[in-house]
Design brief:
single chain; alpha/beta; TIM Barrel; eight-stranded parallel β-barrel; 16% strand; binds 4-methyl-5-hydroxyethylthiazole phosphate; binds magnesium ion
Amino acid sequence: MAGELRARIRGLYVLTEVTLTPRTHEEIAAAALAGGAQVLQLRDKTRSDAELLPVARILQARCRAAGVVFIVNDRVELARAVDADGVHLGEEDWSVEEARAVLGPEKLIGRTVRSLAQARQAYHQGADYLGLGPIFATETKAGLPLPLGVEVITEVKARVPLPVVAIGGITRDNIALVAAAGADAAAVVSAVVRAEDMPAAVAELAQRFAAARRGRRNPPASGEFLDQKPCFWIPIA
Ligand code: TZP
Ligand code: MG
């Protein structure tokens, strides 16, 4: 199991989405590393694996040198080809089992989930971390359900023993709410790629997330509660 890598899914998680910006994957990655992001995801919905291979190689080498976790979105074969730390899979991508068969037990497999039920399912399928969202409204990705709000972060953290990466509409103004709700990491696109000064935006987001996380302890989600219903204290008069 990718235990050591799982524990490194924390802090600011930057996606190198280039459709919203004239900036390149390499420029966004450089800003993410300079600003103190802890996880970087190569996300490109338009180019072929062959076109992305040199880019993925560069990002992987820079992340490894900087001690940053490097994840590839969707493309399991590309992740394997460049020895990325893992892959992130959405609802329409490969199953966790299929990706595991290619990547082996030591690589990270992240799974997009939108509810506690889906989080439990991803855990049972063998996912290493959860991408939970959209937490807030976002224009970056089409066809998303309504924003979930931050409460689902606390709910999932209490019941599923996996790192939770909150995503969707996270900005400098709301990232502290995500951290306070218990997210292990906050994933961002537009808050970075649309910023005038990308490294400064990354640094501010990372600092705000860390400040709101500090001193907060998630209740242990050992997995023993996975199939239980929530229980409530009933005050006795
Ligand atoms: N999945 C859920 S929301 C989202 C993805 C890929 C987009 C996040 O982008 P932004 O700009 O940080 O809202
Ligand atoms: Mg996907």
